[in-house]
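Fold in tokens:
===
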Amino acid sequence: MRKRILILLTVSLTVLFAILTVSLYRFGSRWFLASYLEQKLVLARSISLAVGGDGFLRARSYADTNRPEYQERIEYLHEVALTDPDITYLYTVADLDDEIVYLHDGMRVRSPTIWLEHESFSTVIELGEDEATLTMFQQTHRNSVSFDHLGKEITISYDPARSFIQVNGQDFLRIVSRQPLHVVTPSGELKARLDEESRYTRETLPGRAVSVDIYIGEKGEPTILPGEPVVDDEDFLKLYRSLIESNESFLSDRYVEGNYGTYMGVMAPIQDSEGNPIGLTIIEVYDTRIEQFKRLILLAAGVAALLGIGVPAVLILWVLNRQVLSPVRQLYETVNLVEAGDYSQRAKLKTGDELQSLSDGMNHMIEAIENHTRDLEHQVAERTRDLQSARDRAEHLLLNILPEPIAERLKENEEIIVDRFEDSSVLFADIVGFTSFSANRSPDEVVEMLNGLFSRFDALSAELGLEKIKTIGDAYMVAGGLPVPSRDHPEKIARMALKMQEYVSIQLHDGKALQTRIGIHCGPVIAGVIGTKKFIYDLWGDTVNTASRMESSGRDGSIQVSETFYNRTKDKFRFSEARQVNVKGKGMLNCYELLGEQIRD
């Protein structure tokens, strides 16, 4: 909610800021432009009064450039142009009998300047002491500028060491002097043209500027052209004459396209001593200067709009945050902490309104949830302990039935568990005379005796790292080398058999003792889990059958082993001499009786 409110306020304030800024900018621009041009019009009128009168009539002929009236007016225009940095062009025009001419061209330049003019480009070269500034298409460069003309690259450059202006590396104009500015071509052609054709060129301002019209040929070669009349279009003649004859002042209300860009201007009539219109004073201010002021106005409008909106907006946000957003944020944070499991949290609002009522109701709900959660956690803990206890008992029972690696595979839902072990030892043991022993004793005594005996066998097999397979009645089966393969399983099985004989030496009431008959064989077996309900881990193969035959064909109280097992363990254990035994299913086999471990010196 807080985020949505902030977004809505931000968007609203942004739109309001934009509208207010644009409104202030438009109003300020119109007011500034009107005031600005009005100031320039006042300046133009004062210039018209200064240059007008009968002296203007005597100075308006090009042939009279040496007259004092002409020189005075030129110097005056220069002074005015240089003191007002906003003026781009300041000039006067006069109506001669055959054409309108620019009588005094007061271009605002601060250093000697040459204008290279062509129909497709204009290059302004301002001559400094050690370098020149070349301007083309409103882009400024130092000493050199390049452009494309008819698919060829044209380079205009200034060589300050030799005072030459060059086109494509060739000398074009030589600067003879700077004050007053005087230029010639290497052949003197331009000097002659200025003398003979001065009526048809722009006025040369001594020490300030000179205009040179050039033509770039198809091969890129520069050529000087004859000057053109300043105004030769019939429409322009009529326009200027109508403006002069109207004897009125004018202000631009829009930009006008000029030779070097767009501008706004003002015009003030020049009159003779009797008040008759004889010319115009024209001040042109190009758009770049006006746009600079407009950007400042836009910045000022933005600052004003920001101050006008920002202070109330901050006040509104402060009140909104204090009365609404902060309490809502506190409720939101409390809910998040409770959701994360911290039921000790409570909202502490004292606003005295609907938000406090909501806070109190939420606190009661959190307290109820906390109590209920505590009860559930207690019940879950009890159920978890019971479940863990049952799981432990089940796992213990499973490990009593199956080897641990096999139990893990079974818990991972492995459907068929079967392995082949190429080398293992199998032992079968049977208690001799158990039937007569159990006939004279109660069932409790028999079970107690078997449980005690087999428990000792189980502990012994675990101690030796062997795997108990199963018990059937009074028979006990154990194997070595599985389910984890090992190399010393024959020695472990042999020690198991010797220890089993010691454990079974139980003295009976009739003076006799219980005995075991043990058979051992080693070789490959297949092991796996069979059954789906009362499953067991069992062994199959010829090795198992042979070990069973070794037990059944052995003598009471003996440990009979196969020749294979004998060869594997004879270096560490003592055996009887080999004897031929008729083994069921095998025929006559060499068998040995294990007597004990080798006695080491």
